[in-house]
Automatic annotation (TrEMBL):
<protein>
    <submittedName>
        <fullName>Non-phosphorylating glyceraldehyde-3-phosphate dehydrogenase (NADP)</fullName>
        <ecNumber>1.2.1.9</ecNumber>
    </submittedName>
</protein>
<dbReference type="InterPro" id="IPR015590">
    <property type="entry name" value="Aldehyde_DH_dom"/>
</dbReference>
<dbReference type="InterPro" id="IPR016161">
    <property type="entry name" value="Ald_DH/histidinol_DH"/>
</dbReference>
<dbReference type="InterPro" id="IPR016162">
    <property type="entry name" value="Ald_DH_N"/>
</dbReference>
<comment type="similarity">
    <text>Belongs to the aldehyde dehydrogenase family.</text>
</comment>
<dbReference type="Pfam" id="PF00171">
    <property type="entry name" value="Aldedh"/>
</dbReference>
<keyword id="KW-0560">Oxidoreductase</keyword>
<dbReference type="GO" id="GO:0008886">
    <property type="term" value="F:glyceraldehyde-3-phosphate dehydrogenase (NADP+) (non-phosphorylating) activity"/>
</dbReference>
<dbReference type="GO" id="GO:0008911">
    <property type="term" value="F:lactaldehyde dehydrogenase (NAD+) activity"/>
</dbReference>
<dbReference type="InterPro" id="IPR051020">
    <property type="entry name" value="ALDH-related_metabolic_enz"/>
</dbReference>
<feature type="domain" description="Aldehyde dehydrogenase">
    <location>
        <begin position="13"/>
        <end position="123"/>
    </location>
</feature>
């Protein structure tokens, strides 16, 4: 049985309490996930907020590279992830693997769309139009 952890600020973290995940198919124990306390959630959110400026400062090409790498990992591990997904939600294995592939495709699409966004935002003045009626 797998014991999963959360990635917070670059470190894998467990919690004092865990939630056991069972398959709806046959009640097989699939693994555990951390049951984060409010303090742990607050810590994770604080770390995410602190990381945002560095992410924002990356060039769009660099952000896209990270997203493509994520998609590549999903594609590489689609069988393993799809098998776990199929057991967790009682889904057919082919459909579960297809969902992982679609997720990788959506991430790649988002990465490419981020590269196509160009231009600058400009504040415009409000134009008042008066219409005369007879």
């Amino acid at each position: 049985m797998a014991r999963y952890q959360n990635l917070v600020n670059g470190n894998w973290k467990s919690s004092e309490k865990e939630i056991t995940i069972y398959s709806p198919i046959n009640q097989e124990k699939l693994g555990t996930v951390p049951a984060m306390s409010q303090a742990e959630v607050d810590e994770a959110m604080k770390a995410a907020r602190a990381a945002l400026p560095a992410w924002r400062d990356l060039a769009s090409v660099e952000r896209a590279a990270y997203l493509h790498k994520t998609a590549d990992i999903l594609e590489r591990d689609k069988e393993k992830i799809g098998t776990i997904l199929a057991k967790e939600v009682a889904k057919g294995i082919k459909a579960a693997i297809g969902e992982v592939v679609r997720t990788a495709d959506l991430i790649r699409f988002a990465a490419e769309e981020g590269l196509r966004i160009t231009g600058q935002a400009m504040e415009g003045a409000v134009l008042k139009l008066q219409v005369k009626t007879n």
